[in-house]
Design a protein that fits this description.
The chain is mostly beta strands and 213 residues long. It has 3 helices and 11 strands. It has a domain of 89 residues. It has a 5-stranded antiparallel beta sheet. It has a 4-stranded antiparallel beta sheet with strand order 6-8-7-11. A two-stranded antiparallel ribbon has the order 3-4. Strand 1 and strand 2 form a beta hairpin. The protein is elongated and about 55 Å long.
């Protein structure tokens, strides 16, 4: 993807690891930043066994299997297209997730099996439970699909590849789905797998929503 950079605008890259630590790097050279951005394929970012970052005085090597996500912050980088026909995936705060999913207003929650026609806009709020215990919350927009295609989002998240999203602070994050423990979506699609267990969640407070998947 092309990057339309501003003069001297720095790029910040931040690695999030399974042990809860982070490591950040910066690059101010516009030509280097544009080359890096053009070479990134977010769907295959974690396909290699390691990611190496070289600086003037050091080399840092990160084992891909231990990376939760990589964030890219730059004033002018445009987000890649989203996979699977999704029009938008954006990070939200836990409070925004609770409000959007109406967790504190049970009587107002949208039912999963509500009637929707193919092509209708579906907006869902998703909690991704990642290895290391730190959840990630997102709002997802997509057009409703035919029943036979309704499980595509689940299949994609369980593919162990990667998904990218717009971050709350304006950056772009790429999440390593190999470190996805489970997820909860409100309201989700009407159809569920035939082998699904039917049960209602016990009401839980903040920081524990859907943690036992």
């Amino acid at each position: 993807m092309n990057a339309h950079t501003k003069p001297n605008a720095p790029l910040t890259i931040r690695f999030h690891h399974t042990d809860g630590t982070t490591r950040a790097f910066t690059q101010a050279d516009a030509a280097i930043n544009e080359k890096l951005w053009d070479e990134i394929d977010p769907s295959r970012l974690f396909a290699r066994p390691r990611i190496v970052v070289g600086s003037e005085h050091s080399k840092s090597v990160f084992v891909t299997a231990e990376i939760i996500r990589v964030d890219f912050h730059h004033d002018s980088f445009q987000c890649w297209k989203f996979p699977g026909g999704y029009s938008d995936i954006v990070e939200v705060s836990e409070d925004e997730f609770r409000t959007g999913a109406r967790l504190d207003a049970p009587s107002l929650r949208t039912k999963r099996d509500r009637p929707m026609a193919p092509g209708d806009l579906l907006q869902s709020f998703v909690k991704l439970q990642l290895r290391g215990g730190q959840p990630l919350f997102a709002k997802v927009k997509a057009l409703t699909k035919l029943p036979a295609e309704s499980q595509s989002f689940m299949q994609f998240l369980l593919s162990k590849a990667a998904v990218h999203m717009r971050l709350r602070d304006g950056g772009i994050g790429v999440v390593n789905l190999a470190n996805l423990v489970g997820y909860t979506v409100y309201p989700g699609v009407a159809q569920i797998p035939a082998d699904s267990w039917l049960a209602e969640p016990i009401s839980e407070g903040a920081h524990s929503i859907g943690s036992r998947l």
